Automatic annotation (TrEMBL):
Name recorded for this polypeptide: Probable ATP-binding protein YbiT
Organism in which the protein naturally occurs: Maribellus comscasis
Record-linked Gene3D superfamilies: P-loop containing nucleotide triphosphate hydrolases (3.40.50.300)
Origin organism lineage: Bacteria, Pseudomonadati, Bacteroidota, Bacteroidia, Marinilabiliales
Family the UniProt entry places it in: Belongs to the ABC transporter superfamily. ABCF family. YbiT subfamily.
UniProt xrefs under NCBIfam families: ribo_prot_ABC_F
One Gene Ontology term of the molecular function aspect: ATP hydrolysis activity
Limits of the ABC transporter domain: 2-260, 328-541
Domain of life the protein comes from: Bacteria
Coiled-coil region(s): 567-634
Length: 647
């Protein structure tokens, strides 16, 4: 059991925590939530001892082991994948060496009755028992299972870690952490560098883990799957509830109405009391009452509420400068890193105004193709960027490129020009940097705050083609919504590399799936893509086997015969029929509800002679029958067009 008792922390000139207390029990699954900058990462660091509170105590039982995964890590690249991961078993490896040494000493001994020989026998027995308790017989199989679960292939095991991208190297650190099996996991945004399949594996691992888990994440589905307790940090205090995140959100919305009413009542009481004090302060006959009211105000436990961010609806990217119709034309693109082939003869076409998503497993080439479009990487094949296309790029490490010594205001002021310079405070406030927050130095900001700041810099320069590589990493729920709305309203072209299904929903109209060094186009939104694949989520997409590879080839060959314009026309027709079907289904529901109401009326004896009710009832029944027939015809047409949508 870990205890945090009356933790107070003054950080950067303001109170981050104000006497917060809670316990972490042996099998807790805690989701630690709150807006960016609320102190989630800092709280994890307090538990680990990396940071110290201004007052209060953090108490850990003796021999309690912690497994801490920070958002950013310094990673060494001097070993192969298998060698680096094996470091997690340092105790077992040390025991193996000691057992080997002891066996050798026993074998070399000639006096089987000497005290030294007998001591070695006892020592060997003890070493073997410890080796067995630590799982020495199975650690290699466990290591392999963990690496495969996190998305590595067996062919990766002997590769130097320096060959892997930053995200994959973070997985190496996560694998080492999981294999150490600490008593308490402290995980800060562990899904940021994982693909969907690995997220599913980690969910299952943590749900079945025997120790405790404290998890910081902005992935709602992941929080719901793993956690059964939610601790929210807000206004320097905590809200601790034994429920998953979705249940917590619903509960909080209910409590918010109650709290708001209590806040208004208290504010009225304070206002009335202050008016009374001001009115009678200098009247001797009221001195006792005035002093009583003053003491009443001093003792009052004032209710605090978080103000809603009203300005977010005004956040927009600048109007996109004019460009040609063709944004990107790529034919037969291939890319190798040394002998490692990432993309093999792929084609890509992006048209003006499209909002496109790249989805698929990590390492399949999504970021690589984005960087080829940016002209940051060499390649084989033909690539053309359209006329007057101006690119704005947000990379996964964009936040790390900020100058840590500048303040939030200075970071934007150094690139702002013209009238924008007079609106910097408003822009920062809209992106959740209110008041004195703009004077904070970049180095004290959380990962999410840095990402928002980097996004603001991107928004200040007019571009017509936005390329965003995992833009939602480190962003909280509200910041994701701000960014999504701004992108939806953007008049230019957007390419998003992401595995965040909720973020992509309603934003993109074309999905490129990266798989086995190839890409495959799917017109429509992310849910069109999921439905087409006959799966319920991207997680199922990632674990789907390749048993249908033969039929996929046939489908691709048919799709190649359909032009891009024909594909778009088919997609529009399907969307039109889907809307018709939806409207007709809504009409059927309305008619059935009206008929049900009349059924209730006619069930009363006093209404049996009301002919107008009978006439209306019969008319509704006839209308329902006709509407049902229309629905059947529309459904047949929809299914017919869907059959043509074979890519």
């Amino acid at each position: 059991m870990i205890s945090l008792d009356k933790i107070y922390l003054n950080f950067g000139g303001f109170d981050l925590f104000r006497e917060i207390s809670f316990l972490i029990n042996p099998k807790d699954r805690i989701g630690l939530v709150g807006k960016n900058g609320a102190g989630k990462t800092t709280l994890l660091k307090l538990i680990t001892g990396i940071e110290k509170p201004s007052s209060g105590t953090v108490t850990l039982p003796r021999d309690t082991t912690l497994g801490y995964l920070p958002q950013q890590m310094h990673i060494t690249d001097t070993r192969t994948l298998i060698e680096e991961t094996t470091l997690a078993f340092d105790k077992i490896i040390s025991l193996e060496k000691e057992i080997t040494k002891t066996n050798q000493e026993i074998a070399e001994s000639e006096d089987y009755h000497s005290p030294e020989y007998l001591r070695n026998l006892d020592k060997l027995t003890e070493l073997n028992e410890r080796y067995s308790i630590l799982g020495g017989e199975n650690y290699e199989a466990e290591l392999e299972q963990t690496l495969l679960g996190l998305g590595f292939e067996r062919s990766d095991f002997d590769r130097p870690t320096s060959e892997f991208s930053g995200g994959w190297r973070m997985r190496v650190e996560l694998a080492k952490l999981l294999l150490k099996k600490p008593d308490v996991f402290l995980l800060d945004e562990p899904t940021n560098h994982l693909d969907i399949e690995s997220i599913q594996w980690l969910e299952d691992f943590l749900k079945n883990y025997k120790g405790a888990v404290v998890l910081v994440s902005h992935d709602r589905a992941f929080l719901d799957a793993v956690c059964n307790r939610t601790i929210e940090i807000t206004l320097g205090k905590i809200n601790d509830q034994k429920m998953n995140y979705s249940s917590f959100v619903n509960w909080k919305n209910e409590q918010k109405e109650i709290q708001l009413a209590a806040y208004r009542n208290q504010q009225k009481l304070i206002d009335d009391t202050e008016k009374f004090i001001e009115r009678f302060r200098y009247k001797a006959t009221k001195a006792v009452q005035v002093q009583s009211r003053i003491k009443q105000l001093e003792k009052l436990d004032r209710i605090e509420i978080e103000e809603e961010d009203k300005s977010k609806i005004n956040i927009k990217f600048p109007p996109a400068p004019h460009s040609g119709r063709d944004i990107v034309k790529a034919k037969h693109i291939s890319k190798k890193y040394d002998n490692h082939l990432v993309l093999d003869n792929v084609d890509l076409y992006i048209e003006k105004g499209e909002k496109v998503a790249f989805v698929g497993r990590n390492g399949e080439g999504k970021t690589t193709l984005a960087r080829i479009i940016m002209n940051e990487l060499g390649y084989q094949g033909d690539f053309t960027l359209g006329h007057n296309v101006k690119i704005g790029y947000f990379a996964q490490n964009q936040a790390q490129l900020l100058n840590n010594e500048l303040t939030v205001f200075e970071t934007i002021d150094e690139i702002a020009v013209g009238d924008v310079r007079t609106k910097i405070r408003d822009i920062l406030g809209a992106f959740l940097f209110p008041g004195e927050d703009i004077d904070k130095k970049v180095k004290v900001l959380s990962g999410g705050e840095k990402s928002r700041l980097a996004m603001i810099r991107l928004m200040l320069e007019p571009v017509n083609f936005l390329i965003l590589d995992e833009p939602t990493n480190h962003l909280d729920m509200k910041s994701k919504e701000i960014l999504k709305n701004a992108l939806a309203d953007f008049s230019g072209t957007v390419l998003v590399v992401s595995h965040d299904r909720d973020f992509l929903d309603g934003l993109v109209n074309c999905v490129y799936e990266f798989r086995n060094k190839k890409i495959k186009q799917h017109l429509g939104g992310i849910y069109d893509f999921l439905q087409k694949k006959k799966i319920e989520s991207l997680k199922e997409l990632e674990v789907k086997n390749n048993s249908s590879s033969r039929s996929t080839v046939q489908i691709n060959s048919s799709a190649d015969e359909i032009s891009f314009e024909d594909k778009k026309e088919i997609n529009k027709t399907i969307s039109r029929y889907e809307k018709q079907v939806e409207n007709t289904e809504n009409k059927i529901t309305e008619l059935e509800e009206e008929i049900a109401k009349l059924d209730a009326i006619l069930s009363q004896p006093e209404n049996l002679d009301d002919h107008s009710v009978f006439e209306k009832y019969n008319d509704l029944k006839s209308e329902l029958e006709i509407t049902m027939q229309n629905w059947e015809q529309q459904q047949k047409k929809l299914e017919s067009w869907q059959a043509k949508k074979i890519w």
